[in-house]
Amino acid sequence: MDSWRASAACQNVDPDLFFPVGSGAPALVQAEEAKEICRGCPVQEACLRWAMDDSRQVTGVWGGLDDNERRGLKRRLRNRAVKAQ
After folding, report:
1. What does the entry list as the binding residues for [4Fe-4S] cluster (predicted)?
2. Looking at residues 11-25, what average pLDDT do you find?
C-alpha cells in the first residue's frame, strides 16, 4: 500500500462516494461532494499522481479530479511536452 494513503482525508469515507454512476445531476453532486473532501486532503497531489501515472485510473475521483478532468490534464501536459521539444 502506498504510504500517502495513511494520511488521506478520505480514509474513513465510503469509497462509493468517489465513484459516481452516470452523468446526471445526482452523479454530478456526488462527484462534487468527493472533490470537496479532496480539497482538504494533505496528500491530494500524491493521490492524483498515483491515479494518473502509477495506476492509470480511468474512473472515479482521485486527487480532486474526475476522470474527464484527468484526461484533460493529461492532454494539456502532453501538448506542453510536444511544444517544448
Report:
1. 10, 38, 41, 47
2. 95
